[in-house]
């Protein structure tokens, strides 16, 4: 009986998994939300309601719940993970730092909210994703010129930031007019790491320090180097959001009006709701997720894909690229998709033309070199999942019976040979029969 129950459980898990995250439906649906306290469920309800309204199934659990698990029988139980538990020292159940990182390595997405005096566990998870924090856990982002006024007047740790990343695919096409309220810790990213992006940065006058103690030396983290919110897109296209503030997602900050110090413009509502909503759409693959299908190549004038090509053949190459809109696949339109005809190095590099309906195509002549080539597309663009396509094809030289019988360029040499023979024959006749 126990074996039957186990088998049924495995089948149910496989069925649930097949109906959720898949290449044909890349938007995450099952999300585990880990909390320090269930009070966060109500204090951050607007953010959670936004996710539910878009079809997400949220499961709330305390971070120290002894029944916690991210996978069972080799199958992941969730498609996304939200950790709103900055002070937890140790997760319950089978979840730990390694299992969270394995979750991301599997291609699934993660949101982590770090905060002042966060535990080493949460800071280490964020650090493993590519950001760096100051050694002082009480350090906060402070700004004496870009702080928020009104009901929060005088608190220079409450920053009103409008230094957003310039990417429509990450933050949406609609501009965020109002500044975003932020109160928490800043972090830095390695500029040489192209996988980590600063989405919300501090102003040039900001610095990171402990607000409860006097500065004894110059701050090590200052200005726009301070990232308030960062995102990571891993090489496996998993996406991670790292926020230095849990309050950033709170109902209080989402509903609050805001006026930036030094500005006469007051907004009735901060930009937090639009910011976290649009950012969560990108994190959970409602935008910027690409797929390539129907990769084809053939000789010019033909339709069937050959087993190999001959040098100097004319060929045509095409591929279809689509972007997930959160509901359906829409044609992706760009002018920077390139294909390489590659053997050790690219012999041919062509920018693909598009019909703006998803089809990309080009044509070129096979280079005068034989061996095993590849059609390669390595497409990486800010905010979009990367495309890596490769298809091998052999290229042969001319067979002995495929060369031209007489070459036009060689006619002078042919003439010299025949004239030499005629001259020799004439010389022999004259020499033999002359007296």
From TrEMBL:
This is Dolichyl-diphosphooligosaccharide--protein glycosyltransferase 48 kDa subunit. Pathway: Protein modification; protein glycosylation. Keywords: Endoplasmic reticulum, Membrane, Signal, Transmembrane, Transmembrane helix. Residues 1-20 form the signal peptide. GO terms for biological process: protein N-linked glycosylation via asparagine. It holds the Pfam family OST48_N. GO terms for cellular component: oligosaccharyltransferase complex. It is found in: Endoplasmic reticulum membrane; Membrane. Component of the oligosaccharyltransferase (OST) complex. The gene is LOC110800372.
């Amino acid at each position: 009986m126990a074996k039957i129950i186990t088998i049924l459980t495995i089948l149910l898990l496989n069925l649930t998994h097949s109906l959720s995250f898949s290449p044909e439906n890349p938007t995450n649906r099952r999300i585990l939300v880990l909390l320090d306290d269930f009070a966060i469920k109500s204090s951050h309800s607007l953010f959670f309601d936004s996710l539910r309204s878009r079809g997400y199934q949220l499961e709330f659990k305390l971070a120290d719940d002894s029944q916690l698990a991210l996978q069972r029988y080799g199958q992941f139980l969730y498609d996304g993970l939200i950790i709103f538990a900055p002070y937890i020292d140790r997760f319950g159940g089978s979840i730990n730092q390694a299992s969270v990182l394995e979750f991301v390595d599997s291609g699934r997405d993660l949101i982590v909210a770090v905060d002042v005096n966060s535990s080493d566990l949460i800071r280490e998870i964020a650090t493993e994703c590519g950001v760096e924090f100051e050694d002082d856990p009480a350090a906060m982002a402070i700004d004496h010129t870009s702080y928020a006024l009104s009901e929060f007047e005088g608190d220079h740790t409450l920053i009103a930031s409008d230094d957003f990343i310039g990417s429509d695919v990450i933050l949406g096409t609609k501009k965020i007019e109002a500044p975003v309220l932020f109160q928490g810790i800043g972090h830095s990213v390695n500029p040489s790491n192209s996988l980590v992006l600063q989405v919300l940065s501090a102003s040039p006058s900001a610095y990171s320090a402990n607000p409860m103690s006097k500065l004894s030396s110059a701050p090590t983290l200052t200005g726009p180097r301070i990232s308030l919110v960062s995102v990571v897109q891993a090489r496996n296209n998993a996406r991670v959001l790292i926020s230095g503030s849990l309050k950033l997602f709170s109902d209080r900050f989402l509903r609050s009006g805001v006026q930036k110090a030094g500005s006469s413009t007051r907004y009735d509502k901060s930009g937090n709701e639009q910011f976290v909503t649009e950012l969560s759409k990108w994190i959970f693959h409602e935008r910027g997720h690409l797929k390539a299908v129907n990769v084809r190549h053939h000789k010019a004038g033909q339709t069937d894909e050959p087993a190999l090509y001959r040098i100097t053949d004319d060929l045509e190459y095409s591929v279809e690229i689509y972007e997930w809109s959160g509901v359906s696949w829409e044609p992706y339109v760009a002018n920077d998709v390139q294909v390489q005809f590659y053997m050790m190095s690219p012999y041919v590099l062509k920018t693909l033309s598009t019909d703006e309906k998803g089809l990309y195509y080009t044509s070129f002549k096979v280079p005068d070199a034989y061996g095993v080539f590849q059609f390669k597309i390595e497409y990486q663009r800010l905010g979009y999942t990367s495309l890596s396509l490769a298809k091998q094809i052999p290229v042969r030289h001319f067979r002995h019976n495929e060369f031209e019988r007489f070459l036009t360029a060689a006619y002078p040499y042919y003439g010299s040979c025949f004239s030499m023979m005629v001259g020799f024959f004439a010389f022999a006749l004259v020499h033999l029969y002359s007296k």
